[in-house]
Amino acid sequence: MNYNLLKIDDLKELLRERGLSVTGRKQQLIDALIEYDAKLEALNNDPIDIIEEGSMEKECSVIPSIDNNHIKSNKSEGKVSIYSIQSLSEKERIELRKQKFGTTLTIESEPERRLARIKRFGTNIEDDKKLLRAARFGIRTELDKIEYRKKRFGSTSNIINIDHKKKIEARKLRFGLK
């Protein structure tokens, strides 16, 4: 069939009938239909082994019988209903979730959870970030700040120091430390 003559809507309709994806440009839709036709043709050209009825009966007699009770019990073990989960307590639900997602950590406090998450996803801890920043830019201590200020604005005047000393002595007298 010549798919190039068909419109996009017709191509999409053919794709839907065959259970294929309907998204894409016209050429992609045409290619999908051509591939589907090629696969279908390859399946039709494969020789099919015709089995005689007598040989089928022989093969069936070789298969041992299976106990149906055993099969039913396996099916019931694999089924877990939604209602049974709702009837469980909160702790049991948490345990089931841990088993489902493969987590074995039992961290109770919020900071511990955050640290575990940070480690799990590979992000740096805030202290590590601060240390890296300090190494890059340098840490300024109070003494360094005072020294920098002295260099920039000059030394402090004695008037401030005298006032400061007077205040300290007044405090000592008031609290009886002298």
Question: What is the strand and helix layout of this fold?
Answer:
Blueprint: H1 8-18, H2 26-45, H3 53-62, H4 68-78, H5 82-86, H6 90-101, H7 110-121, H8 126-137, H9 142-153, H10 158-175
Keywords: Phosphoprotein
Domain SAP: 3-37
Organism: Cryptosporidium andersoni
Q: What is the string of helix and strand elements?
A: HHHHHHHHHH
Determine the number of helices (DSSP H or I, runs of at least 4 residues).
Answer: 10
* Mean pLDDT metric: 75
Structural class: mainly alpha
End-to-end Cα distance, whole Å, is: 111 Å
Strand runs, count:
0
The main β sheet shows up as: none
> Helical percent range?
55-70%
Rounded Rg: 41 Å
Shape: elongated
| Uncertain parts | none
Beta-sheet strand percentage? under 5%
Question: Care to describe what's here?
Answer:
- Among the domains are: 43 residues, no CATH class; 36 residues, no CATH class.
- The protein is elongated.
- Helix 1 packs parallel to helix 2.
- The chain is mainly α.
- It is 69% helix and 0% strand.
- The chain is built from ten helices and no strands.
- Keywords: Phosphoprotein.
